[in-house]
Amino acid sequence: MEKLEKLGDDAPTRRGQERRAEIVRCALEVIAERGYRGATLSAVAERAGLTQQGLLHYFPTKDALLIAVLAERDQWDTGAARRDGGGAWPLELLASLVEYNAMRPGIVQTFSALLGESVTEDHPARDWFTRRYDRVRADMADTLRRECGDRLAGGLTPESAAPLLVAVLDGLQFQWLHDPDAVDMPALFRTFVSLLRQGDDEETA
């Protein structure tokens, strides 16, 4: 009986989590279509089959929903790319992530649209992206040092190459969204990684 009661107690929590996940999915779709500023809570609520008041029960503000969307998107990527609980992202798994992103244009479009909008001073995601870039640059430097050593092509250090690696990842996404037939994201990313690795080859030679 105690076990059944515990299961019964967990059921509302599970339903709430499932409903929150559905709202986040709908918010991703609406933001991809309209951008953050054009995505209203009423539009997200309608997509999720809720009243606006019902949506506010799960996310009291639009900013709270936005952060949940970004966190969910980031979790998909980190869950796919991290090898373990540490900060390093193996380059081969990063390349696989780029291939995966090429199969989900809606998610890439949402992230890229929010990233572009977030450069304005009053955007609610500005701090989130700033913190994320700090963390990602540190992770990339760690990865480059583990896999390529302290010296990369052109005499770059892992710390100086890390922002370039991040720029290539995000920049390729923007170009690919504009013209996917002309920009092969996975192939171009692998080419860039091979250029970074040339420092290893030069040392070996």
Tell me the layout of helices and strands:
Elements: H1 2-34, H2 41-48, H3 52-58, H4 62-81, H5 91-101, H6 105-117, H7 126-148, H8 158-178, H9 185-204
Helix pairs in contact: 1-2, 1-4, 1-6, 2-3, 5-9, 6-8, 7-8, 8-9
Could you please describe the fold and organization of this structure?
By secondary structure, the chain is an all-alpha fold. The protein has helices at 2-34, 41-48, 52-58, 62-81, 91-101, 105-117, 126-148, 158-178, 185-204. The model is unreliable at 1-9 and 80-85 (pLDDT under 50).
Shape: elongated
Q: Low-confidence spans: pLDDT under 50, at least 5 residues?
A: 1-9, 80-85
How many DSSP E strands? 0
- Oligomer state equals single chain
N-to-C SSE series? HHHHHHHHH
Helicity level, as a percent range?
over 70%
Percent range for β-strand residues = under 5%
For the termini, the CA-CA separation is 71 Å
Q: What's the number of helices?
A: 9
Radius of gyration: 20 Å
Mean pLDDT: 84
> Mind describing the biggest β-sheet?
none
Strand-pairing-aware structural class? mainly alpha
Describe what is shown at a glance.
It is built from 9 helices and no strands. By secondary structure, the protein is mostly helical. The chain starts with a helix and ends with a helix.
Key words describing this protein structure:
205 residues; 9 helices; 76% helix; mainly alpha; elongated
